[in-house]
Amino acid sequence: MKTIKLIALFFVASTIAIYAQKIDIKPSDAVVKWTGNKIGGAHNGEIKVKSGSLQLKAGNIVKGSVVIDMKSITCKDLENETYNKKLVDHLNSDDFFGVEKFPTATFSITKAGKFINGKARVAGKLTIKGKTEPINFEVTKLNNVYKTQLKVDRSKFDVRYGSNSFFDNLGDKAIDNIFILDILLTAK
């Protein structure tokens, strides 16, 4: 009797593993909008997803990863081409994201809760500039579209420019340590 229960349990576990579904993220449909705040204003733009996938079981996320193309960063709020290019070049520089040395950022899911009313808690590891930090957030799912907002503390990733955490007396030149990523991913 014990052997039959063990065989049945193994069969159920194997069946569940078989039905885990890996789905790819469509980079062309992904939208990642960034916002960086400073005293007296803010800048915003977009950045592209290079690749990504989710592994689902019974409609819930169990694993996943997303690779962001750091060289694709744009600015949407500055209409003057000279100022726009100057900001984007500065964001690409070592003062901020050092994209020549670190052309991608990555996020890997380590744990996710079940979707309840279209929402689930997700935990993972975010890597920017070669530094990895844990991050937790809520994901909203509607059909095959996943949406979230991340609030990222750039000081944890050695993005120091204009940060009161690293420099004194910045006054109105200070830039908030927290930047916001509004993310919309579509699974194939």
Brief account:
With 188 residues, the protein is α+β, with helices and mostly antiparallel strands.
Features:
2 helices; 8-stranded antiparallel beta barrel; Lipocalin; elongated; 188 residues; alpha+beta
Structure commentary:
The chain is 15% helix and 48% strand. It is of the alpha+beta class and 188 residues long. The longest helix has 17 residues, at 2-18. A hairpin with a 2-residue loop joins strand 2 (31-38) and strand 3 (41-57). It has a single domain, classed as Lipocalin. It has an eight-stranded antiparallel β-barrel with strand order 2-3-4-5-6-7-8-9. The protein has helices spanning 2-18, 81-92, and strands at 21-24, 31-38, 41-57, 60-69, 104-112, 119-128, 131-142, 145-153, 175-186. The protein is elongated. Residues 11-16 and 165-172 have low confidence and may be disordered. It is built from two helices and nine strands; from the N terminus they run αββββαβββββ. The relative contact order is 0.18. It starts with a helix and ends with a strand.
